[in-house]
Amino acid sequence: MTQAQVAVEGAVVPVTAVNTVIVGAGAAGMSCAVQLVRFWRARGVKDPHEKLLVVTAGLPLGASRMSGSDKQTYYKMGTSPRVPDTAEDFARTLTAFGCCHGDTALVEGIGSLRGFYNLVEAGVPFPHDPTGAFIGYKTDHDPYERATSAGPKTSRFMSECLQAEAERLGVRILDKHFLVRFFTEQARDGRRIFAMACLDLAAKDKGEIPAHLLVAENWVLAAGGPGEIYQASVYPRGQVGIHGPAFEAGLEACNLTESQFGLASIQFRWNVSGTYMQVVPRIFSTDAEGNDERDFLTEYFDDMPSMATNIFLKGYQWPFDAQRITERRSSLVDVAVHQETVVRGRRVWMDFLRNPAGPTGWAAFAIDALGEEARQYLRRTGALQATPIERLRHMNPPAIEIYRENGIDLTRQPLEIALCAQHMNGGFAVNKWWESNVKGTFVIGEMAGTHGVKRPGGSALNAGQVGAQRAAEYIANARPDYVPKLSSLRSRLREVAEELLEDLRATLARGRKAKTPPEAAMREIRQRMTRFGAHLRSREGAVAALAEAGRQYRAICEEGLKIASPARLRDAVAARQQCLTHLAILKAICVLLERGA
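^ thats the sequence. predicted structure below, dont judge the formating
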């Protein structure tokens, strides 16, 4: 690592040079850092930790640290001593429903156990039996017993354990640095990223533009999904991703139309999958003030056994699936919740103190009356208690505790829920080494467009670990390991610094005259995406939304967003990036619908 400064028109911009910059400090980014240092050490590279820098806008933030859903379950190659499995079978499962390439799926199968045992050695407390076998269980879209879990905080454990390992290896983490843009240049092997510009969010002088430039040979993008573009979202608050700068840098996207949606709590953002649904709580709605309770699901199902069984099935059929709407199946619950909240403007709740209720003439809830799959599961697990909260306490005490830690006591109060955006299954196109079309730039984790649709729950965590390992291995063995010499780049760095400051100063100048604050722009983006770019889409609606998004993006670029000081630059830049991101997604949706999807 080398450092310097560039003086530009009275301002001083610090510059840091390393061999590889990893953007994002979640489970995928930290895994890549750990493995890259190990690969370099194996090759005899001197002081490998000095050649690497992890950059993040907030170390304790992000989906790996703060969200539920896929982050509770880890989907891997089978490790049960009873159920045989192969990498080829694993790949067949990932590709079964489309939008997942066969080569990356096979690589994810082959590298799965390598990634999983790396996490075990790092200290992630995956449960095993006395013989040491990590016996799995079935998750959604899973034909085998491949899933495992360290509880509701699985991905948090992964991130924390991998960070601790990275720090033991001497990896440096540059925290509170918000990515503004990439600077590209034409090289012999095509377009490449030369530098990355950040805003130092921890800068002490709030009156100056706190710019920071980073120069590297290799870039690993691991900053997660663009969760803030949705109004109904289970992503952690502030999860904006870096899709906008990646688009501007020329990275090719793929499968942008594919995202995953499901029921989640909204006060504390957490998916209500797994045992939350399998204990069969009562689901009801109220008006905006919390009055006028109504058991609205009775409009959609014929009797108590059908309604209660489908509530149970939402546990491992959690993602919204259009094919599970017909014949009164489990995704009809999602449609009903959407109708109640978005269309009727009511609030929906899960009540673990009471069993489902029905109208006059319906039989009372009874476990013995459930469908065979639900009935046998609850019997096998011994979850035959009288109320949902008792069944939840028996099956999964940490599921209650995670809410108590966040100010919600499921033993005393109902839980407000909605149908939320949860994970982007598309992203940026990569090859079998997770390298993008821009040479030397790798995309891993949720940003990589490798996940496919109707994928097994938890497979994203496996994909992130395998992608991290593949990118690290390729960088260590097939990319140059030197650190760029800043002394020979002074002229180019001055050009970049001038361009960066000119852009940020113009953003600030427009902001002092603009009328629309960043918060209002983001509200418009979120409402548009939740209405037209979420789980329900129409060609007419998407086309209109795309036109509106285009107008908004042009207005932001030309007129700016209302900010008064450099301290608000981050908000204005983030809103502009998010607007470009949702514009790209809506364009992809329109093209797909025009092709007859």
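The mean pLDDT is 94.
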